[in-house]
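Thread title: Can someone regenerate the structure for this chain?

I was given the following input by a collaborator and told the matching structure tokens would be attached. They weren't. Posting the sequence so someone can regenerate them.
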Amino acid sequence: MKELILGGARSGKSLLAEQRARESGLKVVYLATAQALDGEMARRVAHHRERRPAEWGCTEETLHLAARLRELAAPDTCVLVDCLTLWLSNLLFAGKAAAQAEAGEAIDCPLFRDETAALVDLLPQLPGHIILVSNEVGWGIVPMHPVSRLFADEQGRLNQRVAAVCEQVTLVAAGLPLPLKQTAN
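Best answer:
Regenerated them for you:
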């Protein structure tokens, strides 16, 4: 089963993903994409870590998510990826995309293009239960800064592509899960 859980900031999407992972009855591996580059982000990471059961495995991957999922996915395992939003941001800034947007150039970033395509192509092939958490960022105003516009556009596109290959998609608002898609396995 491949599952995408979407929501806004502090909507409860990570809590729902953790609940679904616990309920899966499988061994759980938490795959974190965040980079704790400042104190505020370090506190967020610590908060998530404190909430997780001690028996869960935990690993980090900031760029090569598909390759890491290929290593971790197994029939007896639930891999919880938290989150695609931070991963996408990592890709945009690690490659050329953010600099190209800042300069007003067309986006031509092999790292971004190849890594997002690899994830979408791999997901349907993976064994076990994969839960992906992502932010829904397209409900606000169009950002003024070119890098912010690029990010919002690409996050929306990534969410659509991932949702298309997942059997289950849930939107979380105010802590309430709203099923968007559920297909039989």
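The CA atoms of residues 5 and 170 lie 5 Å apart.
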